[in-house]
Amino acid sequence: MAADKVLVVEDDANLLETLKYNLHREGYDVLTAADGEKAVEVARAQRPALIILDIMLPGMNGFEVCRILRKDMNVPILMLTARSDETDRIIGLEIGADDYVTKPFSVRELLARVRAMLRRSKMTEAVSSAAPVSLKIDDLEIDIARHRASLAGAGLELSPKEFDLLVFLARNQGLVFSRAQLLEKVWGYDFAGDTRTVDVHVRWLRRKIETDPARPARIVTVRGTGYKLEG
Question: Is 226 helix (H, G, I), strand (E, B) or coil?
């Protein structure tokens, strides 16, 4: 079986080499790029299974790279940021990144996230091929096979992870899931990840499917427990 290709986009030569070395030790086929333009070129040519993408790059930054790649591929993207500002994380998630790691980080944690994201990506593909190809809840329609969703006939612009979250909640309509459970089921993390990732995706998803996001009627918060999708 061919090794999964992982593209690392990082302009810090030392960090790039460290990540390349450790990912290679884990059995991945590692591709690298030190700037945004090269990252887009390599990603389009090699079609990696996952991209580790730094935000602060010379020329085209990580946000721009993410926007461009999201237009023509559904590859999982893990963003690296040196900033603790939540705004950067929200922007990254909104434009299509699946998750983020804030520098400095432990290589062990990053490798765990890579494994989880790849495992979840493969599980999603396997489940999608065996499960119903579409779901309908009132005027919300989800075409799983084509990775599309619409509300009252109007198409929804969803990031890959927003779509995954919506599909999971729709398949389990009425059931309540904690943030930790959603991290495990949707993101594939079997360790204590940052549950704010779940809250951010729920917030953005509500803006797209709720009549009044401030008073959500579809994705409901169950106080002290988590979230559920109502009919």
Answer: strand
Burial 129-168 (b: 16+ CB within 10 A, else e): eeeeeebebeebbbebeeeebebeeeebebbbbbbbbbbb
Enumerate residues 6+ apart whose C-beta is below 8 A from 168: 182, 185, 186
Model's pTM, two decimal places?
0.68
How many Å apart are CA 207 and CA 195, to the nearest integer?
19
For 31, the token pair is: 């591709």
Task: Give the pLDDT confidence score for residue 212 in this predicted structure.
Answer: 95
Each residue of 160-191: pLDDT tens digit? 888 989 999 999 999 999 998 998 888 876 55
Query: The domain at 131-229 falls in which architecture?
Result: Orthogonal Bundle (1.10)
Q: Which CATH architecture has domain 5-124?
A: 3-Layer(aba) Sandwich (3.40)
For the chain, which residues make up each domain, given as ranges? 5-124, 131-229
For residues 227 and 221, what is the distance between their CA atoms, to the nearest angstrom?
5
Low-confidence ranges of the chain (pLDDT < 70): 1, 83-86, 124-132, 189-194
Three-point CA angle 123, 94, 82, nearest 5°: 95
